[in-house]
Amino acid sequence: MTHRGASFASPTRPVIVDAPSALLDLTRAQAPCWPEAGDLKEPASVTALTTGTGEVRFTASSYDAPDVLLPPGLLAANGLIGTVIGAFVAADPDWICLHAAAIALGPDEQAGLTVLLGDTMAGKSTLALALADRGARLWCDDRLPVSRDLDGLALGLRPKLRLPLPENAPAGFATFVESRGGAREGSMVYLALEPQIQAAFGAVLPIRRLVTLERSRQPQAPRLKQTGIGEMVKNLVPVTFAPHLEPVARLARLRHLATECACHHLSYDDSFEAAAFLMQGQGE
């Protein structure tokens, strides 16, 4: 299997990748605006190890990457992207990473970022893209590196969405997805968004609000309530990637984030009603 090297830029240091050529091509397709690194001083590294059946696992120089076998294709490319993000975050104590979506709601982005937190299947991607369809600017739908100064970094990754769309999806949202749909694998479609809809690699905005999502199984109007700092820190712990920080330092970083931001809990059953609710400035 032909391997090829690549050097991805990051805010602090490059990440050198050794991976099969086909996997790097897929990764480039999902991260089209990630620049090549020029300065290779003190790089981190990621290596893709392939089995005889083509499955892939990853190792990283700056942290213990999960020992998981991924099938070849877009799933492996997404795994490589995640490992590269982990490599540059874990190599610098100024950074952590949140498993979260983030959007800039204000038309001039002066309000900073609203971060959407929740478990898998909580609806982060659908809500974030529903907001983008309504005029918000997408920062990320899955991974948000956060600096010590509480700036959220855009990585320019193509957002992914699970198909089929919810039955209650408005026709306009279906058109939004269909007109920007790109690569597909299984139930996932990756969207190619215009620069005015999605921030490019390297853009930063301060995080201003943290919103924990709770999707109800029963019909209900969107409800937003304030959350205490302690409760928000508790919600942040399981979605935070920071293997390079000791537990006390990690908790201090999360407490600082929760203290400096407005903290809310959003309960809803309809992502599109919730998007309209947030765009109206409810709860600010």
Can you offer a commentary on this structure?
The protein is an alpha+beta fold and 284 residues long. It folds into two domains: 90 residues, no CATH class; 183 residues, Rossmann fold. Helices cover 27% and strands 31% of the residues. It contains seven helices and 17 strands. The strands form four sheets. Strands 6, 7, 8, 10, 14, 15 and 17 form a seven-stranded mixed β-sheet that branches. A four-stranded mixed β-sheet has the order 1-2-3-4. Strands 9-5-16 form a three-stranded antiparallel β-sheet, with helices on one face. Strand 6 and strand 7 form a beta hairpin. The longest helix is centred in the N-terminal third of the chain and has 17 residues. The radius of gyration is 19 Å and the shape is globular. The termini are far apart.
Key descriptive features of the protein:
single chain; 31% strand; 284 residues; 2 domains; 4-stranded mixed β-sheet; alpha+beta; 7-stranded mixed β-sheet; Rossmann fold
Give the SSE map.
Blueprint: E1 3-8, E2 15-20, H1 21-30, E3 44-50, E4 56-60, H2 74-90, E5 95-99, E6 101-104, E7 113-117, H3 124-133, E8 137-140, E9 143-147, E10 151-153, E11 160-162, H4 171-180, E12 181-185, E13 188-191, E14 204-215, E15 223-226, H5 229-236, E16 240-241, H6 247-260, E17 262-268, H7 271-279
Parallel strand pairs: 2-3, 7-14, 14-17
Antiparallel strand pairs: 1-2, 3-4, 5-9, 5-16, 6-7, 6-8, 10-14, 11-13, 12-13, 15-17
Helix pairs in contact: 1-2, 3-7, 5-6
